[in-house]
Amino acid sequence: MNQSRSGRKATDAEADEFGSKAGSSSDVASNDTPPDDDLATAFARELAEARRLADENHDLYLRAVAEMQNVKRRNEERLQTMVEQQRRDLLLRFLDVADNLERALASTDGSNPALVEGVDVTFRELERMLAREGVERIAADDAPFDPRLHEATGLVPVPGLTSEQVVAVERAGYTVRGDLLRPARVVVGQPPQ
Question: Would the pTM count as exceeding 0.70?
Answer without folding.
Answer: no
